[in-house]
Structure formats: structure tokens, C-alpha cells
Amino acid sequence: MDGDRVVGKHVFGEIYGFKESSPEHLMNLLLEAAKVADMHVVDAMTYEKPTVYGAIVLVEESHLSIHVYRGLSYGFLDIYTCGEKSKPELAYDYVVEKLSPSRFTKNYADRSSG
């Protein structure tokens, strides 16, 4: 595969001090974020456990996920895409804006090949 290159973009970080919401609300935020970032949704799901809940959206380009730890107003947001057209940074910013945390971190990793 000489000359072929995979473009991988990974945006992830912590969110602190936000009003906790339902897993379904989080899933809807991720679905909207995928639209904003020019991603193509394949499937979506939520989950709830005693100490953590969240949502995962599978997109053709990869995924968006958020995990919230109950009672701590703390969560982890993870958005990864392959391809040049998707804009995971915009998706990340959209979710952060809608959750209005008191603070957050934002990290970027280039996961491209070659």
C-alpha cells in the first residue's frame, strides 16, 4: 500500500462541574455533534451502571463517546475519526458548549499513518 495514508484525528479530554443529565440526553448531544462535524452515523447506544453512565455513537469514520461518573460532575469525552473530511474538534467543542462545564481539558492526537 505504498502511497496510501490513513488520516486519524483524536480529540479527547475531561469535563468537570457540569449538570449531570440522562444517558439519552448525552446520546442526543453526540448525535448532533456528529452532524456538526460532518460524520455519518451508523448506530448509537446508551448504558447505565451504578457508578457510571454514558453514550456511544458509532460513525463510519469511527466513534464519539462520553462517560459520566455519577455524583462527581466528572466525565470523559472521546472523539476519534479517520479521514480528512470529518472535524472531530468541532464535535468536541459542540458537546462542551452544550454541557457548560466549569472547566475542561482538550487534547489532540494525530493518529495518522506514515
Low-confidence stretches: none
> Which range best describes the helical content: under 10%, 10-25%, 25-40%, 40-55%, 55-70% or over 70%?
10-25%
CATH superfamily, by name, is: S-adenosylmethionine decarboxylase
The number of helices is 2
Largest sheet, in brief, is: 7 strands, antiparallel
Whole-number count of domains: 1
Q: Judging from the principal axes of the Cα atoms, what is the shape?
A: globular
Q: What fold name goes in the CATH topology slot?
A: S-adenosylmethionine decarboxylase
SS-derived structural category:
alpha+beta
N-to-C terminal Cα separation, in Å?
11 Å
Characterize the structure shown.
The longest helix is centred in the first third of the chain and has 14 residues, at 23-36. The chain has two helices and seven strands, in the order βαββββαββ. The chain is 23% helix and 42% strand. The mean pLDDT is 93. It has one domain (8-73, 93-106): S-adenosylmethionine decarboxylase (4-Layer Sandwich). The chain is an alpha+beta fold and 114 residues long. Strands 1, 2, 3, 4, 5, 6 and 7 form a seven-stranded antiparallel beta sheet that branches. The protein has helices at 23-36, 88-99; strands at residues 8-16, 41-48, 52-59, 62-69, 74-82, 103-104, 107-110.
